[in-house]
């Protein structure tokens, strides 16, 4: 259990560090920024999996699924669908909400509209 908490903390720190690197990479090279974004995506997925595992082991599973979305203008969005305690301001939507339902039914390549922006499901 402590190993899981430690790994979660380490991943959260890694994602924070990668975001700082990405911001610096934006000025240096688009290619480097894209590579850093991919590393963030991988770390974020691993973090979500670990948090779900941690919550499940405590009998408090809430996360249904995480989705990576891309807008047509290149914006990336990580969306989480949960059973309880949604927070739309942090892109955490209820599985019972209209947006949550639409995202859960979406397949890779489908388009979903969030806050008047169309995103493609990866």
Residue runs with pLDDT of under 50 for 5 or more positions: none
Major sheet: arrangement of strands: 3-2-1-5-4
The end-to-end distance, rounded to whole angstroms, is 32 Å
How many domain regions? 2
Q: What integer is the average pLDDT?
A: 81
Major β-sheet profile: 5 strands, mixed
Strand content: 15-25%
SS-derived structural category: alpha+beta
Radius of gyration (CA) equals 15 Å
Shape: flat
Topology:
Elements: H1 2-28, H2 30-57, E1 63-71, E2 76-82, E3 92-94, H3 98-105, E4 111-114, E5 117-121
Parallel strand pairs: 2-3
Antiparallel strand pairs: 1-2, 1-5, 4-5
Helix pairs in contact: 1-2
List the main descriptive attributes of the protein structure presented here:
single chain, 122 residues, alpha+beta, Chitinase A, domain 3, 5-stranded mixed beta sheet, 3 helices
Give a written overview of the molecule:
There is one protein chain. With about 120 residues, this protein is of the alpha+beta class. It has 2 domains: about 1-60; about 60-120, Transcription elongation factor, GreA/GreB, C-terminal domain (Chitinase A, domain 3), CATH 3.10.50.30. Helix content is about 50%, strand content about 25%. It has a 5-stranded mixed β-sheet with strand order 3-2-1-5-4. A hairpin with a 4-residue loop joins strand 1 (about 65-70) and strand 2 (about 75-80). The longest helix is centred in the middle third of the chain and has 28 residues, at about 30-55. It is flat, with a radius of gyration of 15 Å. The N and C termini lie far apart (about 30 Å).
